[in-house]
């Protein structure tokens, strides 16, 4: 696996994983494949299923290179955010079983909506829907306090139900084989409030221990109140020199894209 996950439970505040990139070359290759729309092939790789090689077509490669290239004078936030969403999707697939449906990352930079959605299936019924917020930032606590928590409060309070239902319906339609009754699944998700929350964020080095996590995710339990911390997921990684690292990683992915094109 390209990313190693180490689980933690932070008191009753949240549960989750710290990430450690253990095979950067493989990670870059998988990101390249996702960027040309081969996410289902990548998912099979993560499940340990080997298959045919992926064809890198010129138009798809050119489009991916554009997404990874920041114009002079522009901020890299959208590019870095896209890459981090792919990291988060990879980590979610590594952490969960084949009975979960995880929506692939949006590849359209301007597209609004959820950073990610995961639907967990148990014996043909939906047991949970997990709403993702993925943030590649150099100000993690401020980002969580000012951006993530307000989003989670909205969903916890039942706002934006139509957006959530549309996303979930589309996702479930891709795996009808896992669901006994799709209509009942939608009703369960919307009305029985089985939704859970997952924030993935680039953390400071000081956040990578118990005291740091407690500070970083402060107020999670009041924003999303539930006696079970499993309803509050948290995923963290520390990347030294985040913006420079993302630029170099992007160049590595571009090199792979061009080499695989031949």
Strand content: 15-25%
Unreliably modeled segments: none
Give the number of DSSP strands: 7
The helicity comes to: 40-55%
- Judged by helices, strands and strand pairing, the structural class is alpha/beta
With strands numbered from the N-terminus, the spatial order across the biggest sheet is 1-2-7-6-5-4-3
Report on the structure:
The protein is α/β, with parallel strands linked by helices. It has one domain (3-261). 46% of the residues lie in helices and 19% in strands. The chain is built from 10 helices and 7 strands. It has helices at 24-35, 39-46, 58-68, 77-95, 140-156, 161-173, 182-191, 210-216, 220-223, 242-261, and strands spanning 3-10, 14-21, 100-102, 116-122, 125-135, 195-202, 232-237. A hairpin with a 3-residue loop joins strand 1 (3-10) and strand 2 (14-21). It is globular. The model has no long low-confidence stretch (mean pLDDT 89).
